[in-house]
Amino acid sequence: MTGHIFGRSTRISPPVAVAGEGCYLIDAGGKRYLDGSGGAAVSCLGHSNQRLRQALHAQLDRLAYAHTGFFTSEPAETLADRLIAKAPEGLERVYLVSGGSEAVEAAIKLARQYFVEIGQSQRHRVIARRQSYHGNTLGALAAGGNEWRRVQFGPLLVETSHIAPCYEYRDRQEGESLEAYGRRVADELETELQRLGPDSVMAFICEPVVGATSGAVPAVPGYLRRIREICDRHGVLLIFDEVMCGMGRTGHLFACDEDRVAPDMLTIAKGLGAGYQPIGALLVSGAIYDAIAQGSGFFQHGHTYMGHPMAAAAANAVLSEIEERDLLAAVRRQGELLDRSLRERLGQHPHVGDIRGRGLFRGVELVEDRGTKRPFDPALRLHARIKALAFDAGLICYPMGGTIDGRLGDHVLLAPPFIISDAEIAELVDKLAGAIDGAI
Ligand code: PLP
To answer: What residues form the membrane-spanning segments (predicted)?
Structure first.
């Protein structure tokens, strides 16, 4: 290998992955790594799934690609039907893309076009939350509230309002009930709408369970319902970004199913292709679709690889695996075991401030001081040390640094395959605890 490729870091030469086997990845030297985060919450079925292999072979034998400007395809049509059959109430149409950022980008542009088509072209603003991540393309990056990812691209990003996240470990006040806390932070949306002028706002976007910036932080009970009410009161579209937390990761096919709140648009990706193909989807309410259908009849957007038959075939096989192997029940069961094991091993650890999450989507937040919840100095780059030590020990996990303003501690996100066994959970927790101890 001549080293002409470049990915993220120009300093690190990662090992060469050559094979995958169940919950493990194997490098060129034969070392095995337990995939405790499914990469970045992607590999929900593990790495050598036979149904996926067969489905992709069969699709390749029939049809690899047909441009959506000319054709639809059987796997894409089937996938859309299957997603809508399980989708939260009111979502009736599916727009297929190649990943999470594309799905969010499409949601933002569709929100804008919807309001133009219904004669409310003054609506153009998006409100999102701090400590959120919605993707790396410019529209999605502007919506996200992660300063570290945004900072150098500031001049390229449209102005977006960011309200408080729902992050009870740090922000719930003493004596405040979960419900009261949820209402208080949700009401920041009302305040921000009043400040901007509600008629100028087109959408509010949030992750029902926050992934890549906060480490599996779920909304507290009642929060999303209150957000829904506020959006409805002002005619603002509600977008749930389930790129990371959707597709069964929390033990429900869609994370918002647990909260019993339906959005106007919902994005999924990652687990949809389970790493076997790049695919994302935007699920859209009937009202939004109808406005376009009865208006211009044309969504002014698109990508060459959208609706790709191979990717759709993979996603159909993922859905079949989830359904036929009852993997949502497995996620709930193994998620509880993972949570229990983390609490037993790390619950009393002097530097573990919080253990949280749903299903097989769990986060461990590290603090220098449990009493005050003071995070470690970001200059220590604790998360990077944990990642390196875990990797040396043969564990893939997803540690992240605290935010620039120091309100969020270093944390580790765990999102193992839905097929993870009891023994593999024990190995995961053991290696993670070792890496945390080694790093501090
Ligand atoms: N939205 C959320 C919630 C994510 O976690 C991510 C990726 O981590 C994205 C969007 C972007 O997805 P992708 O990396 O597939 O473009």
So the answer is: none
- Residue bearing tokens 């193992």: 416
| Residue 1 binned pLDDT confidence (cut-offs 50, 70, 90) | low
Rounded CA separation 252/339 (Å): 17
Spatial separation of the C-alpha atoms in residues 52 and 311, rounded to whole Å: 11
Q: With a threshold of 0.90, does the pTM exceed it?
A: yes
Burial class (CB in 10 A: 0-12, 13-18, 19+), 156: exposed
Residue 110 CA to ligand 1 centre (angstroms):
18
Query: Using CA positions, which residue lies closest to atom 1 of ligand 1?
Result: 134
pLDDT band, residue 402 (cuts 50/70/90): confident
For residue 243, how far is its CA from the centre of ligand 1 (angstroms)? Answer: 6
The answer, yes or no, to whether ipTM is higher than 0.95 is yes
Q: Which fold has domain 54-324?
A: Aspartate Aminotransferase; domain 2 (3.40.640)
Q: Within a 13 Å sphere around the CA of 343, how many CA atoms are in the beta-carbon half?
A: 9
pLDDT digits (tens, 9 = 90+) for 238-252: 999 999 999 999 999
pLDDT per residue as tens digits for the range 116-147: 999 999 999 999 999 899 999 999 999 999 88
Beta-bridged to residue 267, according to DSSP, are: 241, 282
Q: Is 302 left (phi over 0), alpha (psi -120 to 50) or beta?
A: left
Ligand 1 atom 13, closest CA: 100
Provide the residue ranges of all domains of the chain, joining segments of one domain with +.
17-48+326-439, 54-324
Reference 280, options 416, 135, 431; nearest CA is: 135
As a CATH number, domain 17-48+326-439 is 3.90.1150.10
**The two structure tokens encoding residue 304:** 């060459």
Task: Give the position of tokens 């695996």.
Answer: 321
Tell me the average pLDDT of the chain.
Answer: 96
